[in-house]
Amino acid sequence: MTYKITALPGDGIGPEILEGSIEILEALAKKFEFEYDLVTKDFGGIAIDKHGEPLPPETLEACQNSDAILLGAVGGPKWTNPKNRPEHGLLGIRKSLKLFANIRPTIVTEATAHLSPLKESLVKDTDFIIVRELTGGLYFGEPKYFNENQAVDTLTYTTEEITRIAHIAFKLALKRKNVVTSVDKENVLSSSKLWRQTLEQVSKEYPDVTLNHLLVDACSMHLITNPKQFDVIVTENLFGDILSDEASVIPGSLGLSPSASFGESGPSLYEPIHGSAPDIAGQNKANPSGMLLSLAMCIRESLHQPECAQHLENIVFNTINEGIATKDLGGSYSTSEVFEAIKKSI
Amino acid sequence: MTYKITALPGDGIGPEILEGSIEILEALAKKFEFEYDLVTKDFGGIAIDKHGEPLPPETLEACQNSDAILLGAVGGPKWTNPKNRPEHGLLGIRKSLKLFANIRPTIVTEATAHLSPLKESLVKDTDFIIVRELTGGLYFGEPKYFNENQAVDTLTYTTEEITRIAHIAFKLALKRKNVVTSVDKENVLSSSKLWRQTLEQVSKEYPDVTLNHLLVDACSMHLITNPKQFDVIVTENLFGDILSDEASVIPGSLGLSPSASFGESGPSLYEPIHGSAPDIAGQNKANPSGMLLSLAMCIRESLHQPECAQHLENIVFNTINEGIATKDLGGSYSTSEVFEAIKKSI
Ligand SMILES: CC(C)[C@H](C(=O)O)[C@@H](O)C(=O)O
Ligand SMILES: CC(C)[C@H](C(=O)O)[C@@H](O)C(=O)O
User: Fold this and answer.
1) Which of the residues A3, A42, A67, A139 is marked catalytic?
2) What is the mean pLDDT of residues B61-79?
3) Are the beta carbons of A154 and B155 closer than 8 angstroms?
4) A102: Cβ–Cβ under 8 A, 6 or more apart, which residues?
5) Which residues bind Mg(2+) (chains A, B) (predicted)?
6) Residue after which a domain boundary falls, among A217, A249, A281
7) Which residues 6+ apart lie within 8 Å of B301 measured at CB?
8) Does the structure show a pLDDT above 90 at B111?
9) Could you tell me the CATH number of the domain that includes residue A344?
10) Which of A25, A86, A170, B187 is the one with CA 20 to 30 A from B156?
């Protein structure tokens, strides 16, 4: 079976980190003897420039016909029309492909713990995953409008949507340390009351997993004061956006964190947590680790090559350990030099 | 003129930190020769126990007839009825008294910088204020309900509400470093689009103040990676809840941070950021600093005794500097011992 991959380089540093990663994928496929078809499509700002919209029909169709999507990054100061933003492409692709589960691991390794803004003793051995609901909540609820007098956004969740994401979190915890922390604002929001009660309900099907509840404001503190306490965190869309970005700086650089988004069936999407970093775009400075670790998630989950994925993850961290790293990690290597080193290690 | 103060000890550690602080206020009033009337009322969980509701009419009336309200903390595991929570008292008092502006300073002093979960070099000299809108947004918008199938919360803001809080932020910045950072989620939320455009509008009246915009997810990172960059942060209710709690751990202990809430006229409310900490309640262990620094804000803003306020702030920090501190600050003193030491220094 030949898997189909759609590559969406996007904007800013997106193309440089994705192109290099595709070469790594080629080398890995040779070594581990698997095949894939890859097409590259316009997405984000570049698609606005070339086709007038961030998610052109041709791009969406290619994605729909894929097993996996590799995304670089989108956005930049160039695209200022509030009605036609690169980011809208991201929201559109999530919604169209029903990518409701966003998985964001935070892992602190030996090699970068000292780079964390937090004290090394606090972050060492941190290893948790944030499961963010990605197609509900304030991002998509209607009514949603503004005029010169007032604005409205709507936060909606159905029990079905909450149940679905809860199962993802519990299943993940079963493969890990058996602890789920559900984050909500139950003392204020109706949606959080339904969220909490649904999580309790679903937890009955997972007697081996401990379910804890934490308020979102408290969680924003705990992530800093004691990140090691977490195993799997599950939360709604906007809370997940804020908390996963907060978590992403814990390992020492935003450039390290990968993410994956899954639907109930159909293609999955893999992208680094970081954005398009227009300030360093085209300068061969970007840290490719977040993209490469996203590729590793893709190889494991969509191409079903767990050994290959593990091999890639080991190489990425070993390379950093050896000091072959970009500036954000305290190194002096360029993006392409890091890719070279990784290719050699394959 | 004799100012009227209503004291609301509340639950958990609330009574112990507030009673001691009232004695400090007595001593300060003697030294600085001012007068006040103080009444104490039931509020929060204790009011549910005694009157069946967290904000009894008598309590609200006393608050309405005051110049200032001193609040300890509310809540605890004892009150589990989701329809009748101690926290509802807090939301009720904010709404009834139209306390739309919540001011939360984050200051890192010499004495506690080493206790921060962040690296000392990153946090030293941090000094910013979060201005949180407190009576709008998802907390109060309608419709707001849930049933067994779905839930809805509504995020509404009027231009008037945004304008009002923007002025508070700009005026504060004029007295400080002239920088306002407005935090929103403009790439997704309609309310944030109106927020950003209104902030731009109001900023025209403050040509000496620089206005920056930051997305809430990015802000949650910046607070950790570079807290020194901020002067005045202004944001909507829920973002302010999350970000100010995140910020509150930066100085080394949650027990250090004060807050003040203002309306357009009428009484102001002063309370520490921390909660009721039921796990240590009644054990004479609670750090009274957050309450005392809230009292200092009250003395400055509502009793109009700036020298007295400064004196109290100096004493609080000097006492910590001298090592007379509770366990959360690495000390071995009890709550009452800290109060004793502070009283002696007056
Ligand atoms: C670009 C933006 C719409 C997006 C989000 O808020 O989901 C981004 O911040 C993310 O976390 O992937
Ligand atoms: C208790 C709760 C309703 C409250 C809030 O969310 O506003 C608290 O977290 C706070 O920040 O004062």
Assistant:
1) A139
2) 97
3) yes
4) A131, A132, A133, A134, A240, A244, A259, A260, A261
5) 217, 241, 245
6) A249
7) B260, B262, B268
8) no
9) 3.40.718.10
10) A86
Contacts (Cβ under 8 Å, ≥6 apart) of A61: none
Q: Which residues of B fall within a CB distance of 8 Å from A254?
A: 221
Average pLDDT, chain B: 97
Shortest distance between the Cα of B150 and any Cα of chain A, in A, equals: 4
CA-proximal residue: ligand 2, atom 10 (nearest): B241
Range of the structural domain that residue B65 is part of: 1-99+261-346
Burial zone of A154 (CB within 10 Å; 0-12 exposed, 13-18 middle, 19+ buried): buried
Q: What is the pLDDT along chain A (346 residues), one digit of tens a residue?
A: 799 999 999 999 999 999 999 999 999 999 999 999 999 999 999 999 999 999 999 999 999 999 999 999 999 999 988 889 999 999 999 999 999 999 999 999 888 899 999 999 999 999 999 999 999 999 999 999 999 999 999 999 999 999 999 999 999 999 999 999 999 999 999 999 999 999 999 999 999 999 999 999 999 999 999 999 999 999 999 999 999 999 999 999 999 999 999 999 999 999 999 999 999 999 999 999 999 999 999 999 999 999 999 999 999 999 999 999 999 999 999 999 999 999 999 9
Which of the residues B130, B221, B241, B279 would you substitute to probe the A interface, choosing the one with the greatest number of A C-beta atoms within 10 Å?
B221
- pLDDT attached to residue B1: 79
User: Tokens 């814990």 map to which residue?
Assistant: A250
Q: What is the mean pLDDT of residues B184-201?
A: 97
Distance A187 CA to ligand 2 centre (A): 8
| Domain co-membership, B138 together with B236 | yes
A238 alpha carbon to ligand 1 midpoint, in Å?
Answer: 9
Are A51 and A140 in a shared domain?
no
Backbone φ, ψ for residue B49 (5° rounding): -60, -45
Domain final position from A195, A230, A249 = A249
Q: Is A255 within a domain?
A: no
- The residue among A180, A215, A218, A185 whose CA lies nearest residue A199 is A180
* End-to-end Cα separation, chain B, in angstroms: 23
Q: Is residue A122 part of a domain?
A: no
* Together in a domain, B88 and B162: no
Residues B294 and B207 in one domain: no
Number of domains in chain A: 2
Structure tokens at B26: 């007595």
Does one domain contain both B142 and B230? Answer: yes
Q: Among residues A78, A189, A175, A94, which one has the least CA distance to residue A135? A: A94
Render the burial of A211-231: b for 16+ CB within 10 Å, e for the rest: bebbbbbbbbbbbbeebeebb
Provide the H-helix boundaries in chain B.
Answer: 14-32, 45-51, 57-64, 86-96, 120-123, 159-174, 190-203, 216-225, 237-248, 289-301, 306-321, 335-345
DSSP secondary-structure letter at B11?
Answer: S
Closest partner CB to A150 (pick from B157, B185, B244)? B157
Single-letter code of the amino acid located at A75:
G
Size of interface A-B (CB pairs under 8 A): 161
**Res B110 pLDDT > 90:** no
3-class secondary structure, B67:
coil
